[in-house]
Amino acid sequence: MQQTLKVLLVVDSEQDSLVIVEQLEKFGYEIIGRRVKSAQALQQALDECGWHLVLSDYSLSNIDAAEAVEILRRKSRDIPFIILSGSIGEDKAVDLLKSGADDFVIMGDWQRLQTAVENGLQKAYERYERRMAEQALRISEERFKDFANTAAHLFWEIDADLRFSHLSDRFENIFGVSQDDFLHKPFMEVLGKQEIDNAYLQKFIQSIEERRPFKDVEFFWVRPDGDKRVLRVSGKPIFANEWEFEGYRGTGQDVTEAHNLARQLTYQASHDAMTGLANRLLFEKRLVKAIDTAKNEHVEHALCYLDLDQFKLVNDSCGHVAGDELLRQLADLLSGLVRTRDTLARLGGDEFGVIMEHCDMAHAERKANELREAIEKHHFIWEEKHFNVGVSIGLIPINDASVDIAEVLGAADNACYAAKEKGRNRVHVYKPDDTSIVQRHGDMQWMARISHALEANEFEMYYQPIVSLNSASDNQAHYELLIRMRGQDGELIAPSGFLRAAERFNIAAEIDKWVIRNVFNWLSGPSACVKNLFLCAINLSGQSLGDERFLEFVKKMLDSLDQNIVEKICFEITETAAIANLTRATQFISALRERGCKFALDDFGSGLSSFAYLKNLPVDYLKIDGVFVKDIANNPIDMAMVKSINDIGHVMGKKTIAEFVENAEILEKLREIGVDYAQGYHLGRPASIHDIDLNDTITQSG
Q: N or C, which end of the chain is more exposed by having fewer CB within 10 Å?
């Protein structure tokens, strides 16, 4: 059964809203939505309906995301607010998240949107549950306070010597002893034997000595049967005249049940219901306190951020009930390994955190590895299925250099991510100059620049000629098309500068889409003469190759071209990307070759099993890895490698292309071997696509 999702869309474009709703429906939701374009319309919509989710563009004609999130947060702290837009820059995104937005998603990154929506709804549910618990606690306290104020359980009197002189009949039921055990005994002697905070007791004694009224003084009474009761006592002094003190008269209420309920609800509001560990709310409160003591008292603590490895395998194989049981077992396991003074918390999903107070990094690292080894050795069995999971741990010191909770948690998360990237199931100790963490931070900055370039159309296309070596008549134009990004100062940035970050943050396919749109427009535009164009090669990333939605995008774009142009398009994929998902790669290649496109396998020979996979890949061209080509004039091993690749390629009916042809000697060797095509600086350096003259012919260079 589909989950109904009420979505408020703060966007100008009706078309955008329809696309977003369509994607949400693909996620499995039944959507009830409304589009608003102004602050007034947003306020009215919030007043009229209980929304589950708000999706907003960053900048609209009559309102921007900052104003929208402010209006929403005045109305509700629970409704998730997700910004769905183009690039807005890292600083602006951070400011919006600080002001109350839950997440920021690049428009078109639907997989990321699905994750953001699921996380937002889950966090909204947790906030709602926490607020309900707090509300229940408040109501419970008020209810029992009213009961206590209106129905006293006990009446008592003490004389001028502060000895009990009267006790009501219900005394024995509450205290578990007879009235005779208390009558004529000093009031303070009885209270002095009970559990009561010393500062609280001193304040109470001062009220008695000054003959002032006291109200709602609580103390614990342990009955002879061991039952602990909580008593709330109020009293007022008695005077025979204005100056003659005769004693006190007052009431008492047994508030044990209210006290226990309040403690239970307080516990529930600060602990994870499934594992019994501290929850994120309590964890963050204690983390703030730890940061404060580190700064003010110059002590050192440590923070461990744990993220389970292969936990999804348990959930996917056996269901969430099994996953929950594994989390409970690991919570019990970890609880037995941390010190009493430390805080172990479940932070959400399969993530845990440990605050190690007054702990130097040497001890913290030993303890983190102890936790990792314990989880690694834990054997989980569910319905005769056996599982072992690991854990990636980020470890960070908390000292007087720590800035705030956001900085500390961010650094711990980065360290945990670095542990995963280095192979998982390991501890990574955070250092400000850590290469992997600095690299991730740099990649995040690149992500913002890439997103801006996509939004502002700041990419440019370049080309490099591919020259035929074997046929004097084969002189039609053959090019590889290359992308460049325009930098902030107008400089051109090669793909090596930004593609790694794009792949890391799953936006490489968006770059590929930009290339295809612009190249296809160029090929079909009035300025492009394709009469002498033999073939143009377009590079695709590994992420695009494995994305079924990307394949549908390419098919749709090909439908807009004449067939004679389609047949002049060659897609280049790297051998590494193809082998990483051989089945998907084969399906992708076959689907587009049926349309008339060609395929080239780039960097061929770089893999250890290149030839083994080649027979399964229906490509038209092999581009021999330049690492073998550039030294063939001087290195017989490289010469043999190139010849071997060329010969096997020809046997399999594929054309060969040699890269990195940088001088005439290399070119001559390639002719001797019988390579079909060559590409490199000796034959032509990359130049702007706008400089191509397709009426010119490409001839062999020697």
A: N
